[in-house]
Amino acid sequence: MTAKPFDAEVPAAGLVVTVRAARHEDIPALRRIEADAATIFAPSDLPPALAQPMAAAELARVIDGGLVWVAQDERGAALGFVACETVASALHVLEMDVVPSAARKGIGLRLLQQAIAHAEGADAIEVITLTTFSHLPWNAPFYGRYGFRRLVAGGGFEHLSAALSGESARGLKNRVAMARKAA
Questions:
Q1: How confident is the model at residue 7 (pLDDT cuts 50, 70, 90)?
Q2: pTM across the whole model
Q3: Strands 127-133 and 149-151
Q4: Which end of the chain is more exposed for a tag (fewer CB within 10 A), N or C?
Q5: Is residue 154 very low, low, confident or very high in pLDDT (cuts 50, 70, 90)?
Q6: Does the UniProt entry include the keyword Transferase (predicted)?
Q7: Domains of the chain
Q8: How many beta carbons lie within 10 A of that of residue 2, not counting itself?
Q9: Whose CA is closest to 19, among 93, 68, 69?
């Protein structure tokens, strides 16, 4: 069972935002959003070599799985997205980005709410997981406000342990795994 998307227009700090399922034709815009969002990170946090958008084929794969949602303005311009995948009994957030010009206007929260609503409506999903930076206010502290808790290492979730290990091997520091119950 999938949750109904947040397809109603929702005001977000002066913007009218609609959240809808992503389509293949969104891939170029999603890759631009991810590249733009990477510019807010210091090179010490996100080295330029790692600040590359998700491959188009990977985005297509997760879009085909029905687990990517786009936030758009009243003109249809994409402002952000969240991409997830199901891993065992977890809905894992692979990526969530908002264009810097629309940051801090509730768009990230709308996207996170969509992922949570999907997890709550899916019988086989017990937990929502992600990895993020521990020291940046728009990362771990943001998720913490919405029920995500930091886990020691991968917290017993094999996919989180593997993600943290891979991130560390690529040179990312200050990373943490987080999870919250789906319902």
A1: very low
A2: 0.88
A3: unpaired
A4: N
A5: low
A6: yes
A7: 10-181 (3.40.630.30)
A8: 11
A9: 69
